[in-house]
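In this supplementary section we document a worked example of the pipeline. Step one takes a protein sequence of length 401 as its only input; no multiple sequence alignment statistics are reported here. Step two produces a three-dimensional model, which step three serialises into structure tokens for compact storage. The input and output of this example are shown verbatim.
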Amino acid sequence: FIEQDQYRYLRTRTETLAAAFGAAYTRAMQEPGFRSQFGLRDWEESLLEIDPGFEPPNPMSRFDSFVLDDGSMRFTEYNTETPAGAGYSDALSELFYGIPAFQEFNRLYHTFPIPCRPGTLQALLASFHQWQGHKNEKPRIAILDWREVPTYAEFVIFYDYFQSMGFEARIVDPRDLTFEGGKLLAGDYHITLIYKRVLIHELIERMGIDHAVVQAVRAGAVCMANTFRCKILAKKASLAVLSDEKNASLFTDAQHQAIRDHIPWTRVVEERKTTFNGKPIDLMAYILAHKDHLVLKPNDDYGGKGIVLGWLVDQDAWSDAVRLAVAEPYVVQDKIPLPYEDYPSVHDGTLHIIPRMMDTNPYIAFGESMHGCLTRISTDELVNVTSGGGSTIPTFLVEKR
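The serialised model returned by step three reads:
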């Protein structure tokens, strides 16, 4: 439950940070030297050359954040590639209105759902209309990902939603695509708009750089959102770019304040001098000596893979993790105090009230405006539904009657 003032504050600060990330993206596209901070692979660099036919590169994105006990917020990741969860959140909100306990709650409080699917659809449509220019054709949508992924049920939710809004749609596996006669095809289905849920690095690593999707996007035969260029901000290093003192001149005063207030100290793991809380440090020596308040994260992965929470491992395991982080692109991030709230659950027919960690994840449309919020809870310190470390729950605006 979020009160109106809390939601307004979340929206204001989220949109300020989104603008700061947008400034970093613009500079990165203009200056290869600046872009090197993000740690893109060579093949990712080559895909940046493809003009997607619209801006911004991430019409759909999502912050992962925590609202702390003192009311402050910390944003730990910026998902600009496949911001999942909107379908689950909306479906759960509808279901909750049918639960007797929730109906009883509504006798005491006004509750308002915060729909997320409309923002996703409007971002897709805006991208498509910009891509097609002066034409006025309705898109034929492909929800694109591997058929065996654990989030497949959400694709069904979106398929039903797109159909209910009057749009053709199919759930499509990349292995079933061909590019023939200037058309991207799944069997006899001609795709003109891709709602991309497949991760770019998985698509390229499994199917190759000349896959039908890449050919079609390069030829301007299909609109794909989010674009290949979204990889710049999808890197965990994007938070390091914002919080690193060497990039201070890039941001406005309001953006600087939002970065200080909400982005935890983050650096790419490498041999260098930098600062922590305004004091000069040798980065590698500092990381090795202060594991109890640091987190290591792969620069480009998802589902909680490869993340090491320093306070949960011994010094030897931490030193091993740091050696890996130097060899592979990783970032190090300052620990934040995770918020807990009590939530009910039923095990073996018995009600249990268990404290669970909770994150608050605002969706961003067109790289600039907030359009809903995903909430997840977990008994694990790593809050991630895909990795089995948590559950999605509905989010409501609430006020006392």
